[in-house]
Specification:
Layout (H helix, E strand, L loop, with lengths): L1 H24 L10 E11 L17 E11 L2 E5 L16 E6 L5 E6 L3 H7 L9 E3 L5 H4 L9 E5 H7 L21 E4 L3 E3 L6 E5 L8 E7 L3 E5 L7 H6 L9 H18 L2 E3 L4 H5 L10
Parallel strand pairs: 3-6, 6-7, 7-8, 12-13
Antiparallel strand pairs: 1-2, 1-5, 2-3, 4-5, 9-10, 10-11, 11-12
């Protein structure tokens, strides 16, 4: 009987020690990095006007633009960054490419080829929009907000100036307000600092980068194996913009864009991070797509 009491004491003590070590170390999952980031294929935007980006056609390797959406899975929650150019409810995937013609409220017209829906790609991973903790849009342009309404149950992280522009009496050009109308009454966190640490551990940080729109922002990820990554939003559209310092004609404030680029380039060096230009058709094609992931 005495032996059993001693054995029980040792077993309990050992278990307590293991629990203490796990608590100190964060258990089996490191809190300092997201578990993963999935890159979703949200289509290809067929741009036919290089002059809007202050280029001649021959200066660009391609005028095509990728449309990328992202899912960040972190031990403390999930985050969707940007939601595509074509609403899922506007078409039915067939497994083959289909081109959707979009007419914006200001009469601008765009053609986007899509193969997979955003909800379908989330579903392949076992997620539905209601499972998402945070929605973050890099900015309000239509090719980033198409499925924002699907995430009305998430907490929306946004800059005040951006939100005011989105829901103003006269919405800005190149927007599709009907695709984000549900965000008006969604749970919202207004970001008031230049850098917002989403989960409090430095692993997922939203950086203010105004200019393209008043409240434009980029996303920094600290990944355990891949290292630092910054998702560009529309800080750049083409890699040639970065090399030749061209600012699109339609940016809200060109000088702010230039200042934001200088700031983010310095941030990239400080963090030894790579920049993923979301509309870079050639660069995006090299990224592995969901269900594969980066960690």
């Amino acid at each position: 009987m005495k032996y059993h009491r001693v054995r029980f004491f040792l077993t309990a003590a050992t278990a307590a020690l293991v629990l203490a070590v796990q608590a100190w170390s964060g258990g089996g999952t490191s809190p300092s990095a997201p578990q993963s980031i999935h890159v979703f294929d949200c289509g290809t935007l067929h741009n036919s006007d290089a002059a809007r980006y202050r280029f001649r056609k021959e200066e660009l390797a391609t005028m095509e633009m990728s449309v990328a959406c992202f899912l960040v899975a972190h031990p403390k929650g999930t985050l969707v960054w940007d939601t595509g150019a074509v609403p899922d409810n506007a078409w039915t995937p067939t497994g083959t490419p289909t081109t959707q013609h979009i007419v914006l409220p200001d009469s601008q017209q765009r053609d986007i080829t899509v193969v997979k829906s955003l909800k379908g790609q989330l579903g392949e991973l076992g997620y539905s929009p209601s499972d998402i903790t945070y929605l973050v849009l890099s900015h309000y342009h239509y090719d980033h907000t198409a499925n924002a309404n699907e995430f009305g149950g998430a907490t929306w992280l946004v800059r005040q100036v951006e939100r005011e522009a989105m829901f103003g009496e006269k919405p800005p050009g190149t927007t599709q307000p009907s695709t984000y109308s549900a965000l008006r009454n969604s749970k919202t966190l207004i970001l008031k600092t230049e850098e917002h640490d989403v989960f409090g551990d430095g692993a997922v940080v939203i950086n203010s980068a105004p200019g393209h729109t008043p409240g434009h922002q980029v996303l920094y990820l600290k990944l355990a194996k891949t290292g630092g990554v910054v998702l560009s939003g529309d800080l750049y559209h083409y890699p040639e913009e970065r090399k030749l310092d061209r600012v699109p004609t339609f940016d809200f404030n060109a000088e702010q864009t230039r200042a934001s680029r200088v700031m983010i380039e310095a941030f990239l060096k400080q963090k030894s991070a790579q920049l993923w230009i979301q509309h870079d058709f050639i660069g995006n094609a090299k990224l592995k797509k969901s269900p594969s992931f980066y960690e």
